[in-house]
């Protein structure tokens, strides 16, 4: 008999790759509703705190220490609700201050697998409410024979091989992508642009920090002086985004920009924020593209801006293509919507057993 749900022995869970990240997916009904109990359970399931997460599902890196909680939405404008949780690796933290555009790619297929979203024929489109930020995204993916088909010929940099495409659309709301209304400002002594097109991001010129901007993530992480400056700027920027004290939060992110080197639009190194991303987040890339299109913004003069809306955001593992349409309203506010193609895969489906309470 299926042991699933909230049975004392274990919790029903699907491990999924979404884009260049990996996370544990749960139905909301299968985990405690109380956030304190739920977060404590997530730490025991993923094996945190521990740099190797040896006693749990986590992979020892922030990009593989993630959870998604999915349910049918009560919002008439959405089919599904998606709550993202960033589970700390070395520290016992569970944060809900940000969403994750990479895991978002796996939310629709997971919901079809679990039977909470009917497949729509050859392809299914799901309207997904992002519970962390309040936004709505749509995801379209192949469902021949009524189930997700993860196979296909789409390659994304940072993932070996190819898989079936999942088309994500985000944004398009009334909010300005410049939360302070300023194109640039000085934060902790540095000229930055604060932009939010789905993810709050501080844009910085890598050269202004003495970096070339094409360093390996490990090399940037080993530069204690540079990391300290990035963190000082990030903490000062937090309240300007309306996020309050962000010392313990994973937002805003800080992205170092430099001229493109692979024929793309711009080169990026993303502090997320205590590690440097091995590629770049989907929504981070959408925020970068929106920011650099605005004349005068940090990065505008470093970029090779395309005539059309397809931006090739260079990152340590290659390029992420994001289609970002930026418009300026009659009120002077800059707004944006974005689209990206990702892939996802079901890795295992089963019952996960939490580490005992210590
Ligand atoms: O920006 C990592 C990732 C992300 C976020 C992070 C993301 C996005 O999974 O949309 O996907 O924010 O730490 O790549």
From TrEMBL:
Gene Ontology terms, MF aspect: isomerase activity
Natural source organism: Microbacterium azadirachtae
Cross-referenced PANTHER family: ACONITATE ISOMERASE-RELATED, ISOMERASE YBHH-RELATED
Entry EC number(s): 5.3.2.8
InterPro entries noted in UniProt: PrpF-like
Keywords of the record: Isomerase
Family the entry assigns: Belongs to the PrpF family.
Domain of life, source organism: Bacteria
Keyword Isomerase attributed: yes
Name by which UniProt lists this protein: 4-oxalomesaconate tautomerase
């Amino acid at each position: 008999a299926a042991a699933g749900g909230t049975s004392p022995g274990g919790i029903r869970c699907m491990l999924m790759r979404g884009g260049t990240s990996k996370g544990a997916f749960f139905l909301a009904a299968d985990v405690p509703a109380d956030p304190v109990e739920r977060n404590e359970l997530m730490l025991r399931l993923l094996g945190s705190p521990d740099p190797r997460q040896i006693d749990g599902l986590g992979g020892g890196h922030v990009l593989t220490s993630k959870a998604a909680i999915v349910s049918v939405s009560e919002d008439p404008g959405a089919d599904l609700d998606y709550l993202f949780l960033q589970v700390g690796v070395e520290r016992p933290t569970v944060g809900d201050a940000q969403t994750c555009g990479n895991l978002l790619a796996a939310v629709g297929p997971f919901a079809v697998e679990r039977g909470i979203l009917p497949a729509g024929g050859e392809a299914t489109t799901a309207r997904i409410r992002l519970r962390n930020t309040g936004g709505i995204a749509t995801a379209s993916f192949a469902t021949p024979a009524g189930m997700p088909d993860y196979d296909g010929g789409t390659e994304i940099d940072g993932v070996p091989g190819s898989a079936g495409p999942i088309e994500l659309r985000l944004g398009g709301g009334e909010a300005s992508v410049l939360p302070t209304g300023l194109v640039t400002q000085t934060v902790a002594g540095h000229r930055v642009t604060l932009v939010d097109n789905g993810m709050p991001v501080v844009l910085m010129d890598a050269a202004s920090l003495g970096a070339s901007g094409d360093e390996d993530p490990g090399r940037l992480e080993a530069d204690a002086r540079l990391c300290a400056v990035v963190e000082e700027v990030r903490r000062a920027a937090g309240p300007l985004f309306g996020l309050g004290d962000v010392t313990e939060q994973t937002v805003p992110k800080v992205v170092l920009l430099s001229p493109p080197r692979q024929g793309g639009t711009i080169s990026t190194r993303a502090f997320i924020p205590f590690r440097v991303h091995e590629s770049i987040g989907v929504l981070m890339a959408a925020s970068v593209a929106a920011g650099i299109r605005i004349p005068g913004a940090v990065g505008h003069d470093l970029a090779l801006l395309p005539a059309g809306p397809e931006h090739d955001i260079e990152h340590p593992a290659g390029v992420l293509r994001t289609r970002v349409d930026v418009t300026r309203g009659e009120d002077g506010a800059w707004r944006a919507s974005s689209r990206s193609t990702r892939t996802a895969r079901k890795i295992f489906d089963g019952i996960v057993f939490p580490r005992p309470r210590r």
